[in-house]
Amino acid sequence: MTRLPRLPFLTMFTSLLGASVLAACSSASPRDSAAGSAHPMIEPQRVTEHRGSDDLLTAGLGLDGLRAMAPPAFADADNPTAAELRRRAIWANWRGIADLSPAGGYGTVYGNVAPVPGREYSALATLPGATQPHRVLVQVPDAFDPQRRCVVVAPASGSRGVYGAIAVAGPWALPKGCAVAYTDKGAGTDYVDLDAGIGVRLDGTPGRIGEATDLAFVPQVPAGASGVAFKHAHSQDNPEADWGRHVQQAAQFALSSLDRAFPQAAPFTFDNTRIIAVGISNGGGAVLRAAELDGDWLDAVVAGEPNVFVDAHGGRPLYDFATEAALLMPCALLHLPADSLPQPPLRAQVEPLWTLRCATLQASGLVRGGDTAAQARSAYERMRATGWTDEALKAGALSVGFDLWRSVAVTYASAYGRHGVGAHPCGFAFSAQNPDFSPRAATAAERGVWWPDAAGIPPGNGVGIVDAMLAPPDFTRAGLQCLRDLYAGKGQAADGVRAGIAATRASMPRADVPVLVVHGTDDGLVPPAFTSAPYVAAAREAGRTRVRYWQVRNGEHFDAFLGLPAYGARYAPMLPYVYEALDRVSAHLDGEGALPADAVIEARGRGAGAVEAAQLPMPR
Fold first, then answer.
1. Which of 277, 267, 291 is nearest to 39 (CA)?
2. Could you say which of 235, 256, 281, 399 is catalytic?
3. Which long-range contacts (CB under 8 A, 24 or more apart) does 434-437 make?
4. What are the distances in angstroms from CA 507 to CA 103, 280, 502, 533, 538?
5. Before 473, cis peptide (omega within 30)?
6. Do residues 141 and 117 touch, judged by C-beta distance below 8 A?
7. How far, in Å, CA of 585 to CA of 581, rounded?
8. What span, in angstroms and rounded, lies between the C-alpha atoms of 201 and 219?
9. DSSP SS3 for 299
10. Rounded to whole angstroms, how far apart are CA atoms 389 and 376?
């Protein structure tokens, strides 16, 4: 729990109206000045109340409603209301992050879904130098205590929308009376239907480009463009390079929102309000990047399974290992015993495709061998030589089965190269599709679920990848090789992508900020050997003694997939360890103990039964 403010109120801010990011105020404390030349106020543009049959944490759905297989319905599928869209977005984002299956233990062994009444404050905030805004949203529980001021900042995981970290921060912070500040960190689900000229407004409802004044994303659209545009791929801002600043700006917006919520207790400042940043996956990388920023504005960081890149100790950027995996992993997995891989994907269904990939890799000289077994061994040995573990390969089978490596590579190539609509260097585009994958116009009902349901990168939710290089026999092989060449090859496009990747390289956290990194040893999407382990090693080398590292045995990347029997049986959930890490750093800030030590935690999957606390030991 938070403690009373340690420093006196030193700063008075002037509320400025009508803009997402406004001029800095004239008076600032030393802490605020260090955080960015005075506290830039971001005025809330929309305020909503959530009480009674609605609430902040589950939109009134409760655990049973979140577990429902069917999403909350719209009264009119072509014209959903803002309230309906919010409820469905919360449902979708909970299910995309947490294991809510009845045997998964959420709400009984760990986690909290008790109703939390309160208010939401939202706005579109734009970083200096950016062309497109990121969404910021603050949940202020009615139980917030101005005498024990606390904000938890939670950037979305992956490319999710603004509620993309609700299952990460909300269950820990909101019941304690802390406000939670969310950001989509420049990605999100504000898809634009280029054929209809329709984007997404601040409240989630559709708005026509040129008419609506509060669209969350308005891309530059060349004449004749069609299909779908989305912010992560088409903002031309390379948002990942600014993840840390997105987190800081969300914290600044939280202070502004609290000024509005409790004017009698204003001002809320970095001096008198505790700020903890927490995130998983891309959100975990974002909070580590926030810890680099100058100024005494951030009190602690918890980073779960972070996508973070340091150019030392074996660190590799996501684009490098994702494009490698997209090409080689289908073949390499054939070298592992069939019963060692979790299902899905179903081996009988994918083995012909993986065998074909081995043959096309051999024909292009990427692997050796005269038969499939030898080719699979060659691909496996290549991946092992670049740092992949057997644990990461086995868990990575899921990403192969869902074609996730390709979707990541297609989107990130566009983002890193700052390519706009119609300018992808490998010719990829995005569109609603017919059964034969040919593009078509989207319907109003399809558009209506993009904002609440999508994960922020296609394919999914009726939007697919249009691959101009599709050709038999290994249909996606040519496009994947083009994506790989943008990292390993030559030319202007490759230089642009590599420059974009270089801009995402992490620096070390401030020496005074406690940082707790939590990562599963079996993560197959963001392997710790390429991310957390190099980051922690670099931090130690740089003398950052307040960085701690918890390694969770049998932890993989996707808690949401533990509802699948084969995954729940062998893998442990990661969210309990993120919540425990928050407990421990908060207690440390309260003076109730030292920072936790490094730990290797012997967690395990639930086998054929339900999750029990004994399977999730906590470090002491």
1. 267
2. 281
3. 437/464, 437/466, 437/470
4. 40, 18, 12, 14, 9
5. yes
6. yes
7. 6
8. 14
9. coil
10. 16
Name the more confident of 242 and 437.
242
Helices marked H in 106-242 — which ranges? Answer: 166-173, 231-234
DSSP-assigned letter for residue 195: T
Catalytic residue list contains 281: yes
Sheet containing 515-520: give its strands across.
46-50, 118-125, 134-141, 179-183, 150-155, 274-280, 300-304, 515-520, 547-552, 599-601
Enclosing H/E stretch for 463: strand 463-466
Q: What is the model's pTM?
A: 0.94
CA distances from 143 to 58, 173, 260, 441 (A): 16, 11, 16, 47
* Side chain identity at residue 312, one-letter code: A
Contact 5, 240 (CB under 8 A): no
Asked whether 487 and 319 are in contact (CB, 8 A), the reply is yes
Degrees to nearest 5, angle at CA 603 with 597 and 608: 170
| Average pLDDT estimate for 1-25 | 28
**CA torsion, ordered 171, 174, 180, 183, to nearest 10 deg:** 30
pLDDT value at position 42? 87
Cα separation of 46 and 137, whole Å?
9
Give which of 539, 309, 315 is closest to 416, Cα–Cα. 309
SS3 155: strand
Q: How far apart are the first and last CA of the chain?
A: 19
Cis peptide before 171 (omega within 30 of 0): no
8 A C-beta contact, residue 196 and residue 431:
no
Distance CA 198, CA 218 (A): 9
Which pLDDT score, from 0 to 100, does residue 13 have?
A: 24
**Dist CA 476 CA 472 (whole Å):** 8
* pLDDT score recorded for residue 20: 31
pLDDT digits (tens, 9 = 90+) for 183-220: 999 999 999 999 999 999 999 999 999 999 999 999 99
- In sequence order, the β-bridge partners of residue 242 are none
> Percent helix, strand, coil in the chain (nearest 5)?
35, 15, 50
Alpha-carbon span 570 to 131, nearest angstrom: 44
| Mean local confidence (pLDDT), 138-160 | 98
Name the residue among 343, 411, 609, 394 with its Cα closest to residue 520. Answer: 394
DSSP alpha helix (H) spans, 364-389: 372-385
Q: How many CA within 13 A on the CB side of residue 186?
A: 30
Q: How confident is residue 4, by pLDDT bands cut at 50, 70 and 90?
A: very low
CB atoms within 10 A of CB 305: 33
Angle between helices 477-488 and 492-502 (to 10 degrees): 70
Query: Up-side HSE of residue 595: CA atoms within 13 Å toward CB?
Result: 18
439-440, strands of its sheet edge to edge: 439-440, 429-433, 463-466
DSSP result, 568-620: HHH-B-SHHHHHHHHHHHHHHHTTSSPPPPPEEE-----TTS---GGGS----
Give burial (CB, 10 Å; 0-12/13-18/19+) of 49.
exposed
Planar angle of CA 315, 317, 322, nearest 5 degrees: 120
Q: What pLDDT, in 10s, does the model give residues 68-117?
A: 999 999 999 999 999 999 999 999 999 999 999 999 999 999 999 999 99
Q: Round to whole Å and give the CA distance between 257 and 65.
A: 29
